[in-house]
TrEMBL record:
It comes from the Eukaryota. Gene3D superfamilies: 6.20.250.50, Potassium Channel Kv1.1, Chain A. One of its GO terms (cellular component) is nucleus. PANTHER family: SPECKLE-TYPE POZ PROTEIN (PTHR24413). This is BTB domain-containing protein. Its main location: nucleus. Belongs to the Tdpoz family. Keywords: Nucleus, Ubl conjugation pathway. The keyword Nucleus applies. Residues 27-94 form the BTB domain. The keyword Glycoprotein does not apply. It is found in: Nucleus.
Length: 193
């Protein structure tokens, strides 16, 4: 049996966090994000992400120079991504969860994407609904999209359409407004029968 603390974090996970995430002395690849550098381990990154595996297996610049430059992820999001890769744990940074979800999608880390989706849907509200629907659409996540549309068809539809997120969605993703209206109409038809 493996010992764990009250949150279920095992000694192995604590050790990995301390050794691989916090200790920036070792590593066999440097990941540059803006002005921040992260030392990481190709083997661990490759084991958890088929995208990283592909980068390191082929004669890409990342494999030759042992350096990767990433421009579309914020440093705090990448730090959380590394933490998850090494420990299978989230630190609970609500502010980065949508960006972490996007990073999990980009690097094909399905377990992290699933956990982020679950967290996002647990926090779903009339204020976040439109943003969440756009996130689901951007990352082609039919399950999240379905959940958000079901949420919209509840009693909060009026509040959702008054939110800043809804106005943004109407401007940038008008087809999602159409899908939402169709989902609401289908719900009304079911209720009338």
């Amino acid at each position: 049996m493996i010992a764990a603390d009250s949150k279920g974090v095992t000694i192995v996970q604590q050790s990995l966090k301390g050794r691989f995430v916090d200790d920036q002395k070792f590593g066999d690849v440097t990941i540059q994000i803006g002005s921040r550098r992260f030392l990481a381990y190709k083997g661990i990154l490759s084991a958890r992400s088929p995208v990283f595996a592909s980068m390191f297996e082929h004669q890409m610049q990342e494999n030759i120079g042992n350096s990767v430059s990433i421009s579309d992820i914020k440093p705090d999001v990448f730090k959380e991504l590394l933490h998850y890769i090494y420990t299978d744990q989230l630190t609970g940074l609500d502010a980065v969860i949508p960006d972490l979800y996007a990073a999990a999608d980009k690097y094909a880390i399905s377990s992290l994407k699933d956990r982020c989706r679950q967290h996002i849907l647990q926090k779903l509200s009339w204020k976040t609904g439109a943003e969440t629907l756009m996130l689901a659409d951007t990352h082609q996540d039919p399950e999240m999209k379905k959940q958000v549309l079901q949420f919209f068809s509840g009693s909060v539809a009026g509040k959702v359409t008054e939110s800043a997120g809804w106005r943004k969605m109407a401007r940038t993703h008008p087809y999602l407004v159409d899908e939402t209206v169709k989902a609401l109409a289908a719900k009304v038809r079911v209720c009338e029968q």
